[in-house]
Write a structure and sequence with these properties.
The chain has one domain. Helix content is about 65%, strand content about 0%. The protein has one helix and no strands. The chain is elongated and about 55 Å long.
């Protein structure tokens, strides 16, 4: 593989990771909203990412 191919693959990986992060953040927000609706007005959700 040449450098440009590797560079494009890395950019694709970064783009895919950004999409996953955005989807995760949306799910976290939805979870916070659901918990708030159930009565607790001060909800904190923590996410721990453990890299493989």
């Amino acid at each position: 593989m040449d450098y440009r191919t590797l560079e494009r693959a890395a950019a694709d990986d970064r783009g895919n990771a950004q999409i996953l992060i955005e989807e995760l953040m949306a799910q976290i927000y939805e979870l916070e909203c659901m918990l708030t609706i159930e009565g607790d007005e001060d909800v904190d959700v923590a996410v721990v990412v453990d890299e493989p």
